[in-house]
Amino acid sequence: MPELLGCVAEQPLVDHHCHGVLRRDADEATLESLLTEGTGVPGGSAFDSQAGFAFGRLCPPVLGLPTRAGLGDYAARRAELGAAEVSKRFLQAAGISALCVDTGFTPEPLTSPAELGGLAGATAYEIVRLERVAEEVAATEGAGAGAAGFADAVRSALAARTADVQGVVGFKSIAAYRTGLDLAPGRPSDAEVTAAAGRWMAAAGTGPGPPRLADQTVARFLIWCGADLGLPVQFHVGYGDSDVDLHRCNPLLLTPLLRAIQPTGVPVMLLHNYPYHREAGYLAQVFPNVYVDAGLATHNLGRRSVVLLAEALELAPYGKFLYSSDAFGLPELYYLGSVLFRTALSALLAAGLHEDLYSERTAARLARMLCADNARRVYRLADQGIR
Ligand SMILES: [Zn+2]
Questions:
Q1: How far is the CA of 88 from the centre of ligand 1 (A)?
Q2: 128: which DSSP letter?
Q3: Residues of the chain predicted below pLDDT 70
Q4: How far, in Å, from the CA of 174 to the mean position of ligand 1?
Q5: In which order are the strands placed within the sheet that holds 268-272?
Q6: Three-state DSSP class for 343?
Q7: What's the rounded Cα separation, in Å, for the pair 319 and 284?
């Protein structure tokens, strides 16, 4: 690893999009399944990848093992230390001062934002997933009869979430996963929402668990509800697991909606973006309220994240880019996101210094902006008493 610029190495990070970590120990199979968005390599290993090579290079030393320790030895050492100690080591080594935790995806029990913050030694905030709130409302209201009250019930549920003391600082839309990003820009009327909710609830029937929301009208309604509450609205964009139709997740598909939201001034946060990070950078340049990151891709691209960050910042103003790990389940992913981002940022700023594009003082200011200050400003974290 090349030596980092001091201003990058010492700067704490604000991770504006991440998830909880597992409460249980991770064995070899769990490590394989959570390393990437893939679901296995028949006859091979997910670790034979850029993400795996970065993991082998960087993670074992944090647990007191030699670089590139075998996966069996690694899992054994993990079990010996226990999940809490392993999480604490990686999260603290990541150098994070604040976390904005998406609590809407919990296929198995994960740490709460407060627990995650405690492990990391950071202040934790919550991002509320819009679709999850709508699904909970639908499950409570029941099929058919509840459609008329759906819009109001969702509005008050979201307002209640932002009013509580847990520090909700934004919303997240996973329309990309459910309908794609080619969304009509207008705000749907309550009558349209009632009709759409009725169709959705009837189709979902009375099966167990909340009904899965995949309706364009309801998705748009939720996004406008988030904007009405004045908090930043995050969008899943680009790279994700096989549940996503990637070709429907190009952020350029959001252009009409971004144009419609612009007059409200509500920040729109485009998450991950890969392989459309250049398109996202364009949107961040031309829309004053659009911000971007390169989360998830950073650790999946491993050493190529140097190129990723350079491309993401070709057009995006440096005041519009945020750090995110999009770590989920494994604390190692927080650490990999942090180290690889710092490595890429340091290389980018060092090249700029070498080419005399800016002074050292400016490089230090840019590092503060990209690592933390942009996120603090957009999510108004300073108002929440951080640091
Ligand atoms: Zn994500």
A1: 22
A2: E
A3: 1, 141-145, 164-166, 205-210, 383-387
A4: 9
A5: 13-18, 96-102, 123-129, 168-173, 233-237, 268-272, 290-292
A6: helix
A7: 9
Measured in angstroms, how far is the CA atom of residue 375 from the centroid of ligand 1? 16
SS3 291: strand
Task: Give the per-residue pLDDT at 141.
Answer: 66
What's the 3-state SS for 153-186? HHHHHHHHHHHCCCCEEEEEECHHHHCCCCCCCC
pLDDT at position 164 is 62
Global pTM reads: 0.95
Residues in Cβ contact with 314 at an 8 Å cutoff, skipping those fewer than 6 apart: 278, 281
Per-residue confidence (pLDDT) for residue 195, from 0 to 100: 95
DSSP, res 321: B
**Which has the closest alpha carbon to 227: 289, 320, 288?**
289
For residue 203, the model assigns a pLDDT of 80
Nearest to 353 by CA among 366, 335, 368: 366
